[in-house]
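Hey, resending since the last one bounced:
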Amino acid sequence: MSDDAGLITQWNRLTRVHRRIEARMERHLHRQLGLGVSEFYALRTLSEGVAAGTELLYLSDLANGTGLSQSATSRLVTRLQERGLITTHTASNDRRSIEIELTAVAHDVLRLGSPLLSQAVEEVVRQLHVEETDMDLLRYLRGGGSDSAGAHVRQAPNVR
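The structure tokens again:
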């Protein structure tokens, strides 16, 4: 198998694992909190912005943080508002931006949701071990793969 074919095979494995983890996360979040993954990611993005001292948040910043389009992000913000997870206000110093504030309910959701995400990842990683998936990928997902991941990068041919 050529280096390119090997890389594509590894990329496909990683993509399949990512999809499985996200599907498991979706099930846990929906069952326990009634949220989807994109809603939870949005709350985390907003929370990280607040922790970093960002007072104003442009819709494009939230879109970039969640990987959604502008229109999907607008719909997401509306859903979060309707559920009482955020409040929004037009910024007084810049009418084009909005200030988004997490509610107390959102902080509770974040506190309860983070362990659910960890649980989902652990469950999928345990299944990977049983299925005898690529051991380098398994080590990476468990947090110990920086050396082996770097070895694959160093072995890759130079691309010009």
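The longest strand covers residues 86-90.

Sorry for the duplicate.
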